[in-house]
What we know:
By secondary structure, chain A is α/β, with parallel strands linked by helices. Chain A has helices at about 5-10, 60-70, 105-110, 115-120, 120-125, 130-135, 155-165, 185-200, 210-215, 250-265; strands at about 20-30, 35-45, 50-55, 75-80, 85, 90-95, 170-175, 205-210, 220-225, 230-235. Chain A has a domain at about 1-90 and about 205-270: P-loop containing nucleotide triphosphate hydrolases (Rossmann fold, 3-Layer(aba) Sandwich).
Amino acid sequence: xSAARLEALAPSGQRGRPVYELRGVSKTYARRNxxxxxxxxxxxTEGSFSSVIGASGCGKSTLLKIMAGLVPPSAGRxxxxxxxxxxxxxxxxxxxQQATLFPWKTALENVVLPIEIRDGKAAARAKQGxxxxxxxxxxxxxxETVYPGELSGGMAQRAAICxxxxxxxxxxxxxxxxxxxxxxxxxxxxxxxxxxxxARNATAFLVTHSISEAVILSDTVYVMSPRPGRFVEAxxxxxxxxxxLEMITTPRFGALVDRIRSxxxxxxxx
Amino acid sequence: xxxxxxxxxxxxxxxxxxxxxxxxxxxxxxxxxxxxAVAFIAIWHLVSNFGIVSPxxxxxxxxxxxxxxxxxxxxLTGGYMLGSLMITLQELVISFALAIFIGFTLGVLVGxxxxxxxxxxxxxxxxxxxxxxxxxxxxxxxxxFGIESKxxxxxxxxxxxxxxxxxxxxxxxxxxxxxxFKTMGxxxxxxxxxxxxxxxxxxxxxxxxxxxxxxxxxxxxGEFLGGGKGFGELIRVASTxxxxxxxxxxxxYLSLLGLATFGLVVWLERKLVFWQRSSVRTAG
Lengths: 270, 284
Ligand SMILES: Nc1ncnc2c1ncn2[C@@H]1O[C@H](COP(=O)(O)OP(=O)(O)OP(=O)(O)O)[C@@H](O)[C@H]1O
Ligand SMILES: [Mg+2]
């Protein structure tokens, strides 16, 4: 499918100016010469929520790492807010599958860690009030001085969200952030995520294996082909916002899920 | 739910299946240890008192206790033995400090830089496989019969486990932790100091505990072979005089010193690696 048609499918222009722009981004890992990512074109508009879904090993994490400036692309261009991404940036917040809180720091110290690293200890202390407010927002009030070893998986993941949000990033890159959680906690976290993104007008890009998770959260769901990954379809989700978990039972939701599944089936995997 | 179902007591006729633990495995730790000690001393007493072995080879417990009290009195009243102990203690402290400094520095070089890993590590591995005690005559030839040669040997022995522990610790951080630090824009120095070093503390302390044992062995071996005025020399003299009970008593006090060193390291580990007791670190 041509890049032009995919652009037409994406709801650009509806929500505002483009923030992320990827043109012809591909990646071949030098070691063992694996082409992980085909040519990817992508435009994310301000305040939009997009998901990418595809088979295991098709290059989703690779794409996200390139977008975050953690790995350089083999070819192509990544622009964020008008300047090229050449390394980790303050306006990018990233979250991984594992919470990776550091066990020698309390929940609060973990949350302000990005500030400590970028601006020093004094700045981190100054942000503690804000960090407390964030922890309260995700239901972790009273756990500020607790060490990660005493938090449950879901609580640790919520603290990790706060750590991502403390720098007030304009874009959130999320690599299967809740896949380690049970379904109930996961639903709850997804609704939290939507609320936070809407409140901050943050642009979000989510990697997931769950079709229903992608549909309930996204404005656009990108379907990726098996390795080397390439977008084969951009499915626009026209459910109204804010989304609720009840929408899962609506016929429209079912139709969207079926449509994405049919594209995944064509790629013959899962 | 009725009251009856909550009661723990089984009704008569109910089949009860509980885990069986033998009386032997139910003895409390302190009692078990005391029992074993009493049994050991009793056998020792029997073997040494009835002419089965000569007192030169195995003194009686009573004789050993007499020497234990004598040495203890000498140490407490500031006798010549206290002077010896102080020399040994001094060697121990200097050697351990040097080993930690050199071992940590080399460990960071090996664990953090490609040059260290490629060029330095192979030599360290080669040196580590050598019987390090065999270097004692060289250290004595170079540094004489003072404390320097003992310090050199003990440092030499204790450095390697610290290098290995430090380097292994720096490799302990997983890909997730590295990526997380990278996204936060951490410099290499920040990643080392704020993440890799704390993450590697457990491995570092494993090395330190091995070194604590090694440094003691190094100091005493140095004193056996290189003379001087330390505690090892007292043992050597007593042994030459066939005064085995004295040797036993001296070794017991020396063990206390070793235990204290080891205990200090364990205490420090508990303080610094407080999070290890709860093993959950990440979600999932
Ligand atoms: N550092 C690396 N060096 C070499 N090859 C890599 C590296 N990272 C990933 N790959 C390869 O690139 C391909 C895509 O990997 P990637 O992690 O992007 O997949 P993914 O879509 O995120 O998969 P999953 O859904 O299982 O997380 C895989 O075939 C993988 O083996
Ligand atoms: Mg992945």
